[in-house]
Structure formats: structure tokens, C-alpha cells
Amino acid sequence: MQTDTEVLAYAVDLLMRRENLPIDLVAQILAAPLWEEIDYMEPQKAQLLRTLRQTYGSLLMNGPFSIVIAHHGEMIGLTDRIKLRPMVAGTNGDYVYLSSEESAMRLVSPNLDKFWAPRGGEPVVARLKSFRPKTLEVLTGGQTQ
Questions:
Q1: Is 116 helix (H, G, I), strand (E, B) or coil?
Q2: Do residues 127 and 73 make contact, with C-beta atoms less than 8 angstroms apart?
Q3: Do residues 124 and 89 make contact, with C-beta atoms less than 8 angstroms apart?
Q4: 53 phi/psi in degrees, rounded to 5
Q5: pLDDT per position in the chain (145 positions), as tens?
Q6: DSSP category for residue 121
Q7: Is the dihedral of CA 134, 79, 123, 27 positive or negative?
């Protein structure tokens, strides 16, 4: 492995293809919440996140990163948990945009329906409800948009 991008690609492959984990859990492994944040979560969610951190702790990405992963009709945007790298998201109709800057999205789509800056470690997941581009579901931090 020669680059951090390659390491990340192998980690995603391991978690999604070999371990068969959903993309939402992969995000929680790569950019896991801080232990202090987990302590204040509802018990069931806290236990899941503790288990993931204990099992896959070596895959926690330390340092600055922003990534976009596409996989079988779904896409995820994720930045490091303390947001050392920028990431913004936007939607316009059935399209989802992820970028490091709002201005880049506005060049492609000047009139976004929605624009937001996800918190550090907060995944933005876009899923096709079918393989027809007109049906799209966008999740951010586990909440449907």
C-alpha cells in the first residue's frame, strides 16, 4: 500500500464486501464518534458503537480526510470526525451533490433545493430506491432527508 487512499479503499472493501456490513456502519467504523460522545448516547446505540470500535478499532481513520464512496446504487460522503477536511452537501430535485466547496456545487447546479455542511464524522448517504435515477433517498446522520 503506497497511499492513504489505497488503504481506505482496502478498508472499505474489507468491511463491505468481505464482512458484508452496510455502508452506514462502515461510516461509523471509519469515522467513529469519540468515546465521550458514545457515553451520552442511548444504551442500545452506544453498545453497538462500542462493539464496532473494539472490533474494528484499527480501521479508525486518524487525521484529515474527506471521501466519497459509491457502491451498488448507493453513495456515501464522509469526513474525519473533527472535520479537518471540508465537505458540503446539496440536493436539487433527484440529484445529490458532495463537494469540498459550495462554489463547486453551485457551478454545476446554481439553484440547490437544499444545502448543508455535515458535522465531522456525519455520513451523507444517498441511495437509489431502485436503479432508476428518479427515485432517490438521502440520509444524513441516519435521518432521511
A1: strand
A2: yes
A3: yes
A4: -65, -35
A5: 678 888 888 999 999 999 999 888 999 999 998 899 999 999 999 999 999 999 999 998 888 888 898 878 888 899 988 889 999 999 998 899 999 999 999 999 999 999 999 999 899 999 887 555 445 566 665 554 4
A6: T
A7: positive
